[in-house]
Structure formats: structure tokens, C-alpha cells
Write a structure and sequence with these properties.
Length: 472
């Protein structure tokens, strides 16, 4: 039976669809998207095995999933860091980027086409809104103005910076000789070299705009979001750079309708996938289970001693809201009840649904019985003498000696009705026939009753000594 859909469920589905689409948009065209799709298939199989009660398969997939998550975090840490940066709502406030000027694009374009005519290879990266600090490594900081002479000297054949990439950010050449991550895509044409593979790899992981000059063919390509675009003239390159790198204030505003209906196929596919997962998760919604929960009291007054709880456990009826929630038989359900109102005698305490510690996805529908009785007494403390317990008789000639305990008395605490009847506390048995004068023996005290507490946790010292005049 299909459960009733709440407004919260619709919001849950839409939020998860939005998050998954964002991940798809960020990782599209990278090797990470292939891993995410594989994980989606494994997750679907896992839920299917749980639904069909295939215990061994679901257990293996669950344990395998834990290991895979750790491996993904280690292998794709750069992609995850970039995704979190993209998700940050403060990046536009924290980034202090300046507008790129059209005249700079013109100088760059004309210089690059002159270099292409001379078959000078080059790789230039224009930073977008996302930081490239973790993606561009081993660069040499230059921080110079953009000029034709500087660009030609960086990529001059035989120069130290020739084989690396130059980073342009905030209208300046920030770094040179940078290393870029290579793309692992199998769809790259064979005639494209390492420069093109590096440009594609960076574009797959960021919003950077990369310009590549082929040293063999003298061609200029613009690489963005994993796509190559051939540039045939400086004017075409200027217009492309100006369109891609202009500030957000100048970018065209996208209406809500365009945002919703653009790229519709993956959105519908993700929405259907989320709905399927939601259905699998909520399959057991409304399932009723019964379990027992022990009663635990807290907040007991300091002057009160508990004697008995009737009953010591209650029967709890729960309603499971998700298949991800384990059955009550596997949970440590407890009834935590406040005993601050317990007094001397019999006290009745109510057991409410809120007293049951149930996990998320499970609701308590009933508790039986709805109340418990607590028997308690006032707490009494007093000092009683310690009485050594002898086993047998003292050896001949030592019967006149006295068995002395140190300390001679201890404090006990417990229910008043029991404490008042106790006149002494005995020790563990002492073999009297083996006792010698002047020798000490360490013995533990015996509890007079299980409700009585001894306010001493160390053994007492027993000695055999001569009687004093006061003891005769």
C-alpha cells in the first residue's frame, strides 16, 4: 500500500533532486560522474536486496559501501573540494575579482595568433569564479601585467616556462610553468597532444577558460567545460573570451522558467530516480512492531532509596516510518523516567511516549502499562562497629589476646527500616588457629544486606594483641 504523501515528503524529494542535479552538473564530463553513476546502481541494488530480504547480499553491499565511501573521498578529494567551493554561497562575497577589460583580450588574441603563425605552442588559463589553487601545481609566481612581450617570452621555444601553463587572473599574469591535471577521457582525438589533454582535464574540474596553441598545426582552440572550440580569427577569440569572462553584473539574467526547463532530460531522470529511492525507503512506513523496554529512573532525590520498581520493563508498540530504520528487536529501547517526585512509600509515575528513546524514522504508538509503581524509603546513615569474624578458636596460650579491627567502626547507608536494625558489620572469615600476635591481616567487610551501602571500599586491618586494662 502506498503511504500518504505529505508536504514534507514532496520537499524531501525536490531537495534531493536539486542536490543530485548540482552534483551531475559539476561532475559532468569527468571521471567522477562515472563513479557516481556506478554508486547509484550499487545503491539501487542494495535497497532492492533489503526489500527482498536477501540478508547476505545486502550485508555485503552495506559493508562494501562503507569502504567505497572512504576510497572516493581519498581519490576524488580535489573534485569534492571544488564542488564544496561551488556550493558555497559566500564565494562571490569573499572573491574580489576585477572586471576583465576588452582591450586586454584584444592584445592577448592578437599576440596568440602571431604565436600560432610561428608554430609556438602555448597554454593559457583564464581563471573564472572558482579557485584553481588545488588544480594548478608547481607554478612560478610572476604577477606581471599582460603584454605581448611577456606572453611571447613565456612561451618562447626553449624558455624555462615554455612547456607549462600561464594563469591569468584579475587582469594580470599570476603564474607560469603550471602543471594541469590531465583528462582521462577516451574520446579525445588521437592527434591532440598533452597540452590539449591538460586543458581538457582542467576544464572538466573547474569553470576556467583555457586557450591552447598547437605547436604542430598552428591552431588555436578554446576549451571550456570539457569542450573544444576552434578559433579562426582574433575577433572570434575576443568575442568568445568577452562572453565567457565578463563579470556577473553584465551577464544576461536567466529567468526562473529557463532555469527549470533547461537541460530537462537529466532533471526528469534524476527526479524519477529520487522518487524510486523514496518509495524503497518508505516501503515499511506504518509497519507496527512490539518490543520491551527496561525502565530506568533518573533524578532520584538524594534522601531517598529505591526498593522496587513494578514493573521493571514496559511493552512498547512502535510504527516504523522508513525501511532504513532497523526493527525494534535490534534496538536498545529504554524508558527513561524522571523520578524527582518519588517520596517515602509507594509513588505512581506515568510512562509517556516521550520517555521512550526511539531512533529517527520510528514513532512510539503506545506504551503498556501506562504507569509504574515505585517503592522507596528515606535514606539513613549511621556508624556501626566492625566485628571480626573468627573461624575456629585461637591457639592455646593466646585465648587471652584480643582481636582488634582498624578502623573499629564504619558508616553504612540505606533504607531507614534496615539501617536501624543493624548493630555491627562483620568481616570475611579469619582462620583463628593460624593467627599470631602482632601480625596484621587485611579483610574485606561483608554487606549486611543488598540494600545497604558501605561507605568504605578498602579492607580493614585485623590484629591480635594483648588486652588493655579498659578491655579487661
Amino acid at each position: 500500500m502506498i503511504p500518504n504523501i505529505r508536504i514534507q515528503d514532496i520537499a524531501d524529494i525536490l531537495i534531493m533532486t536539486f542536490l543530485l542535479y548540482q552534483m551531475y552538473s559539476w561532475f559532468r564530463g569527468t571521471r567522477a560522474i562515472q563513479v557516481l553513476l556506478g554508486l547509484g546502481v550499487v545503491t539501487l541494488i542494495y535497497f532492492s536486496t533489503r526489500f527482498l530480504d536477501l540478508y547476505m547480499t545486502s550485508w555485503v553491499l552495506q559493508e562494501l559501501g562503507t569502504v567505497l565511501i572512504i576510497l572516493i573521498i581519498v581519490v576524488f578529494q580535489t573534485e569534492i573540494r571544488q564542488a564544496l567551493y561551488r556550493f558555497s554561497l559566500l564565494r562571490h562575497i569573499l572573491d574580489s575579482r576585477e572586471d576583465t577589460q576588452h582591450s586586454q583580450f584584444q592584445d592577448i588574441a592578437e599576440t596568440l595568433f602571431r604565436m600560432a603563425a610561428r608554430r609556438t605552442g602555448a597554454l593559457i588559463v583564464f581563471q573564472g569564479n572558482e579557485s584553481l589553487q588545488d588544480l594548478m601545481t608547481n607554478g612560478i609566481v610572476i604577477n606581471s601585467e599582460i603584454s605581448p612581450q611577456m606572453l611571447e617570452s613565456i612561451f618562447f621555444d626553449g624558455a624555462p616556462f615554455h612547456d607549462g601553463a600561464a594563469l591569468i587572473n584579475n587582469g594580470r599574469i599570476e603564474k607560469a610553468a603550471c602543471h594541469l591535471p590531465l583528462s582521462v577521457s577516451t574520446e579525445i582525438p588521437q592527434h591532440l597532444g598533452t597540452r590539449h589533454r591538460a586543458a581538457l582535464g582542467l576544464s572538466e574540474r573547474s569553470d576556467a577558460v583555457i586557450v591552447v596553441i598547437s605547436e604542430e598545426r598552428g591552431e588555436i582552440s578554446l576549451v571550456t567545460s570539457g569542450n573544444f572550440q576552434r578559433m579562426n580569427s582574433p575577433t572570434e577569440l575576443i568575442m568568445a573570451l568577452d562572453d565567457l569572462l565578463r563579470s556577473e553584473t553584465e551577464s544576461p539574467r536567466i529567468t526562473l522558467r529557463q532555469r527549470v526547463f533547461s537541460n530537462l532530460f537529466p532533471k526528469i531522470a534524476l527526479l524519477l530516480g529520487v522518487c524510486i529511492f523514496w518509495g524503497l525507503i518508505t516501503t515499511r512506513q506504518g509497519h507496527i512492531s512490539t518490543a520491551t523496554a527496561p525502565v530506568r529512573l533518573h533524578g532520584i532525590p538524594d534522601n531517598i532509596v529505591l526498593l522496587r520498581i513494578i514493573p521493571e520493563e514496559v511493552t512498547v508498540q512502535t510504527k516504523t516510518m522508513s525501511s532504513l530504520t532497523p526493527p525494534p528487536s535490534r534496538l536498545d529501547l529504554t524508558a527513561e523516567i524522571d523520578a524527582a517526585g518519588v517520596t517515602d512509600g509507594i509513588t505512581t509515575l506515568r510512562v509517556k511516549h516521550a520517555n521512550i528513546t526511539a531512533p529517527s524514522g520510528m514513532r512510539v504508538s503506545s506504551v503498556s502499562p501506562s504507569s509504574i509503581r515505585v517503592s522507596a524509603e528515606k535514606k539513613l546513615r549511621k556508624s556501626v562497629p566492625v566485628k571480626p569474624t573468627l573461624k575456629g578458636r585461637l591457639p592455646a596460650g593466646q585465648s587471652s589476646l584480643n582481636v582488634i579491627s582498624d578502623p573499629g567502626s564504619v558508616e553504612i547507608e540505606g533504607p531507614a527500616s534496615q539501617v536501624t536494625q543493624i548493630t555491627s558489620v562483620g568481616t570475611e572469615d579469619i582462620d583463628a588457629i593460624r593467627m599470631k600476635e602482632g601480625k596484621t591481616y587485611l579483610k574485606n567487610l561483608r554487606l549486611p544486606d543488598k540494600q545497604i551501602t558501605l561507605l568504605r571500599d578498602t579492607p580493614v586491618t585485623i590484629t591480635l594483641s594483648t588486652r588493655t586494662r579498659s578491655q579487661r
